[in-house]
Amino acid sequence: MLSALQTPRTAAVPVERRRHHRMKVVLLGRYMLPNRMEYPCQTLDISPGGVHLAAPAKPKPGDRVIAYLDHLGRIEGFCVRTTMEGFAMTITATSRKREKFTAQLTWLVNREELGLPEDRRHERIVPRNPRSVLTMDDGSAHVIRIIDFSLSGAAFQSDLDLPLGLPVRIGSTLAQLVRRFDGGYAAEFRIPLSADLLDENLEL
Prior knowledge:
Layout: E1 28-32, E2 38-47, E3 50-54, E4 64-69, E5 73-82, E6 86-90, H1 95-114, E7 131-135, E8 141-149, E9 153-157, E10 167-170, E11 173-181, E12 184-189
Antiparallel strand pairs: 1-2, 1-4, 2-3, 3-6, 4-5, 5-6, 7-8, 7-10, 8-9, 9-12, 10-11, 11-12
């Protein structure tokens, strides 16, 4: 569940400033409006200062929006305009977080343009406490060992014989099994983790 929104109302609608180059990067995610309803979304273009989302429900200009995007994690800002496909929003971030965000975007653009495989050297984190619990839809639970995790997924050790595509819960995080390897599985999270929480002390 996305964290709750606070919706301070101001007289002036935030103004979108095109100081940053827009990049055509397609990322899936979810967003939450001031009414606390969540919806799926997809980026149409994005820059360190704003993003244009294809989205089924449109906020009003000036509404605060929180979103989680694959590979980028949590972003937040204000709707500046609605479009035929969805809406455009600003991205509010500290200078340090914006620098990291810019580096992530550059890597994503280069990966798409050059057809590079996903580079996990800077994304994967080995947890300090690798123990977690894998829970199935039927309620059965199994202790697993987390190998590493990122914003969008985790790899874990398990001797279980499980089908790919199986919906599971790793700790309290909803996920789906997407790949099998010798001694374990890779799972993709239904909603990306928050970049603010991503470190070795995080327990799934």
